[in-house]
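Section 4.2 – Deliverable D4.2 (structural model, holo form)

The reporting period included a commitment to supply a predicted holo structure for the target in complex with zinc ion. Inputs used:
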Amino acid sequence: MHIDSETLINALRDQGLRITNARRAVCSVVARRHSEHLTAASILDEVKGEPGARADQSTVYRTLDALEEAGLLVHSHLGHGAAVYHLASEAAHQHVVCSRCGTTAAVPAAGLSEWLNDLQERTGFTVDPTHFAVTGLCPDCGAGDA
Ligand SMILES: [Zn+2]
Ligand SMILES: [Zn+2]
Ligand SMILES: [Zn+2]
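Output (C-alpha coordinates):
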Protein backbone atom coordinates (compact mmCIF):
# COMPACT_ATOMS: atom_id res chain seq x y z
CA MET A 1 0.00 0.00 0.00
CA HIS A 2 1.52 3.27 -1.10
CA ILE A 3 1.10 6.63 0.56
CA ASP A 4 -1.28 8.73 -1.54
CA SER A 5 -1.10 12.44 -2.20
CA GLU A 6 -3.94 13.24 0.25
CA THR A 7 -1.90 11.68 3.06
CA LEU A 8 1.09 13.83 2.08
CA ILE A 9 -1.04 16.98 1.91
CA ASN A 10 -2.59 16.26 5.32
CA ALA A 11 0.89 15.87 6.79
CA LEU A 12 1.85 19.32 5.48
CA ARG A 13 -1.34 20.77 6.93
CA ASP A 14 -0.54 19.13 10.29
CA GLN A 15 2.78 20.97 10.25
CA GLY A 16 0.97 24.25 9.84
CA LEU A 17 1.93 24.79 6.20
CA ARG A 18 -0.47 26.55 3.89
CA ILE A 19 -1.68 24.18 1.19
CA THR A 20 -0.84 26.03 -2.01
CA ASN A 21 -1.23 24.68 -5.55
CA ALA A 22 2.54 24.28 -5.69
CA ARG A 23 2.67 22.16 -2.51
CA ARG A 24 -0.31 20.14 -3.71
CA ALA A 25 1.50 19.52 -7.01
CA VAL A 26 4.70 18.40 -5.24
CA CYS A 27 2.64 15.90 -3.22
CA SER A 28 0.90 14.55 -6.28
CA VAL A 29 4.16 14.14 -8.23
CA VAL A 30 5.85 12.37 -5.31
CA ALA A 31 2.86 10.04 -4.82
CA ARG A 32 2.39 9.30 -8.52
CA ARG A 33 6.03 8.62 -9.35
CA HIS A 34 6.88 6.84 -6.11
CA SER A 35 8.80 4.04 -7.81
CA GLU A 36 11.26 6.37 -9.53
CA HIS A 37 14.37 8.01 -8.21
CA LEU A 38 13.28 11.62 -8.32
CA THR A 39 15.62 14.49 -7.57
CA ALA A 40 14.29 17.82 -6.33
CA ALA A 41 15.06 19.21 -9.81
CA SER A 42 13.06 16.52 -11.60
CA ILE A 43 10.18 17.03 -9.15
CA LEU A 44 10.26 20.76 -9.97
CA ASP A 45 10.14 19.99 -13.70
CA GLU A 46 7.06 17.81 -13.18
CA VAL A 47 5.40 20.36 -10.92
CA LYS A 48 5.74 23.00 -13.62
CA GLY A 49 3.58 20.77 -15.83
CA GLU A 50 0.76 20.58 -13.26
CA PRO A 51 -2.23 22.87 -13.85
CA GLY A 52 -2.15 26.10 -11.88
CA ALA A 53 1.05 25.31 -10.01
CA ARG A 54 3.76 27.96 -9.88
CA ALA A 55 6.72 26.71 -7.91
CA ASP A 56 10.40 27.39 -7.53
CA GLN A 57 13.20 25.20 -6.27
CA SER A 58 13.01 26.48 -2.70
CA THR A 59 9.28 25.70 -2.46
CA VAL A 60 10.02 22.18 -3.64
CA TYR A 61 12.84 21.77 -1.11
CA ARG A 62 10.78 23.13 1.76
CA THR A 63 7.89 20.82 0.90
CA LEU A 64 10.18 17.79 0.62
CA ASP A 65 11.83 18.69 3.94
CA ALA A 66 8.44 18.90 5.62
CA LEU A 67 7.43 15.50 4.22
CA GLU A 68 10.71 14.02 5.49
CA GLU A 69 10.07 15.59 8.88
CA ALA A 70 6.66 13.91 8.90
CA GLY A 71 8.34 10.57 8.27
CA LEU A 72 6.62 10.04 4.92
CA LEU A 73 9.62 10.61 2.68
CA VAL A 74 13.28 9.56 2.77
CA HIS A 75 16.21 10.57 0.59
CA SER A 76 19.32 8.71 -0.54
CA HIS A 77 22.50 9.81 -2.26
CA LEU A 78 23.35 7.72 -5.28
CA GLY A 79 26.67 9.34 -6.06
CA HIS A 80 28.08 12.80 -6.58
CA GLY A 81 24.78 14.10 -7.92
CA ALA A 82 21.65 15.32 -6.20
CA ALA A 83 19.81 13.25 -3.59
CA VAL A 84 16.83 11.16 -4.72
CA TYR A 85 13.56 10.85 -2.84
CA HIS A 86 11.43 7.81 -2.00
CA LEU A 87 8.16 7.49 -0.16
CA ALA A 88 8.85 6.00 3.26
CA SER A 89 6.36 3.26 2.38
CA GLU A 90 8.73 1.90 -0.28
CA ALA A 91 10.62 -1.11 1.09
CA ALA A 92 13.97 0.05 2.50
CA HIS A 93 16.70 -0.72 0.00
CA GLN A 94 20.39 -0.17 -0.46
CA HIS A 95 21.52 1.15 -3.84
CA VAL A 96 24.56 0.13 -5.82
CA VAL A 97 25.68 2.63 -8.43
CA CYS A 98 28.10 2.16 -11.31
CA SER A 99 30.85 4.74 -10.92
CA ARG A 100 31.46 4.66 -14.67
CA CYS A 101 28.01 4.81 -16.33
CA GLY A 102 25.70 5.67 -13.43
CA THR A 103 23.47 2.58 -13.75
CA THR A 104 21.80 1.78 -10.42
CA ALA A 105 20.45 -1.39 -8.85
CA ALA A 106 18.85 -1.98 -5.47
CA VAL A 107 18.93 -4.73 -2.86
CA PRO A 108 16.56 -5.04 0.12
CA ALA A 109 18.09 -3.55 3.26
CA ALA A 110 17.05 -6.67 5.16
CA GLY A 111 19.81 -8.62 3.42
CA LEU A 112 22.43 -6.40 5.04
CA SER A 113 21.55 -7.21 8.63
CA GLU A 114 24.53 -9.47 9.32
CA TRP A 115 27.02 -6.84 8.18
CA LEU A 116 25.12 -4.13 10.07
CA ASN A 117 25.09 -6.15 13.28
CA ASP A 118 28.82 -6.70 12.97
CA LEU A 119 29.38 -2.99 12.35
CA GLN A 120 27.25 -2.06 15.34
CA GLU A 121 29.07 -4.53 17.58
CA ARG A 122 32.48 -3.20 16.56
CA THR A 123 31.70 0.51 16.66
CA GLY A 124 28.60 1.00 18.82
CA PHE A 125 27.08 2.98 15.96
CA THR A 126 23.47 2.53 14.93
CA VAL A 127 23.89 2.65 11.17
CA ASP A 128 21.47 3.91 8.53
CA PRO A 129 22.37 1.58 5.66
CA THR A 130 20.29 3.24 2.95
CA HIS A 131 21.33 6.91 3.11
CA PHE A 132 24.33 6.49 0.83
CA ALA A 133 24.79 4.15 -2.10
CA VAL A 134 27.63 1.69 -2.53
CA THR A 135 29.61 2.34 -5.71
CA GLY A 136 31.34 -0.07 -8.05
CA LEU A 137 31.25 -1.24 -11.65
CA CYS A 138 28.09 -2.66 -13.24
CA PRO A 139 28.35 -5.95 -15.19
CA ASP A 140 28.64 -4.07 -18.50
CA CYS A 141 31.40 -1.72 -17.38
CA GLY A 142 33.20 -4.39 -15.36
CA ALA A 143 33.25 -6.70 -18.38
CA GLY A 144 35.20 -4.09 -20.35
CA ASP A 145 38.21 -4.60 -18.08
CA ALA A 146 38.35 -8.37 -18.50
ZN1 LIG B 1 15.83 3.52 -4.52
ZN1 LIG C 1 21.34 13.09 2.96
ZN1 LIG D 1 28.33 0.79 -15.75
